[in-house]
Amino acid sequence: MFYARQNYTDISFETHSRFREAVSSWQTLVPPSHHLLSPDIEALEDSKPEDIEFRYVNILENGELIGIMYLQYLRFGQKHYNHNIFDKPLLKYFKGIILRQSTRILICGNLFRVNFQGFYFKDKGRKDMIFNCLQQYKGTITGDKNFSGILVKDCSREFNEIQFGCHSFRSFTQDLTMELGIREHWENFGDYLNDLTRKYRQRALKIQSAMKDIELTDLSLADIIQQKDHINRLYMNCVKQQSLALGILGADYFIKMKTSLGENFKVFAYSLHGEMLAFSSHIYYPDKNRMEIHYIGMDYEANRKYQLYF
């Protein structure tokens, strides 16, 4: 099977740095319920995550709007990966040099969400234009914007290997998301436990026993604002455990998301003796009957001290 390269000489771009500047034109092209019109796009923008810039791009063909791109410019540096990986033999000799390096990556999509494609075309049959459009757009960026690579998120099911390769892209499927379907007969947690094997049922009961003194609190917007420094500290504890962190959020993100989504965004605090030891954030999609466990944060020392299982 062969995919011919198309002529993109009639393609031009209109770029906006704020979502509110682009949304009126995007609404003429994208279905009302599409994620590229969701209010949490602006909530993320307003939270000003570290080392991220946002661009909202209209794709024009002969002056007509045919598609859009949601882009993130990531400055990737030493704060985004675990330095211990360079303590191995041979690599440790280059550690100092590597840690001084930084680069820029052009992201099409949202680093902080799953199933959040960053492109949409009026004619779905032309969606593979995204690869050439990104490469052409990259060439129009001026200033200190020398990107070392382009990452197109959440599209591995949209295209096959030939389409990727034809445009000099490679499929990356290592970063997978776990999904759990809720069975019809699960009315409570006990029903879920009954479907587990004996080994995993005992493990779940052990975890429940260790957590019996933990207090679970649904934080209000005022609570999140009051606890923002603590939430940020717990979140960064988890970031530092990752070998690679593409993008880092701040506590303002959770405040903006709660403000924007209201009851469809929850932050739960796990406390012991009045001290928050962990939190988890959740996004609810009532129209899809789905819930996403979004981000977590925890106190690892307290977890070990009290032998908890977060």
Describe this structure in words.
This protein has 310 residues and is an alpha+beta fold. 29% of the residues lie in helices and 25% in strands. It has eleven helices and ten strands. It has helices at 19-26, 40-47, 95-99, 129-138, 161-166, 189-194, 198-210, 221-226, 228-239, 251-261, 300-305, and strands at residues 11-16, 52-61, 64-76, 103-108, 119-121, 147-152, 215-218, 265-272, 275-285, 290-298. Strands 1, 2, 3, 4, 5 and 6 form a six-stranded mixed beta sheet that branches. Strand 8 and strand 9 (275-285) form a beta hairpin. Helix 2 packs antiparallel against helix 10 (251-261) and helix 9 (228-239) crosses helix 10 (251-261). It starts with 10 loop residues before the first strand and ends in a 5-residue tail after the last helix. 21% of the residues are buried.
Pairing-aware structural class of the strands and helices? alpha+beta
Strand proportion, as a percent range, falls in: 15-25%
Individual helix count: 11
The averaged pLDDT comes out at 84
Gyration radius from CA atoms, angstroms: 22 Å
Termini separation comes to 49 Å
Shape: globular
Flag low-confidence runs.
1-7
Largest sheet: 6 strands, mixed
Which keywords apply here?
310 residues, 11 helices, disordered N terminus, alpha+beta, 4-stranded antiparallel sheet, 6-stranded mixed sheet
Helix and strand layout, with pairings?
Layout: E1 11-16, H1 19-26, H2 40-47, E2 52-61, E3 64-76, H3 95-99, E4 103-108, E5 119-121, H4 129-138, E6 147-152, H5 161-166, H6 189-194, H7 198-210, E7 215-218, H8 221-226, H9 228-239, H10 251-261, E8 265-272, E9 275-285, E10 290-298, H11 300-305
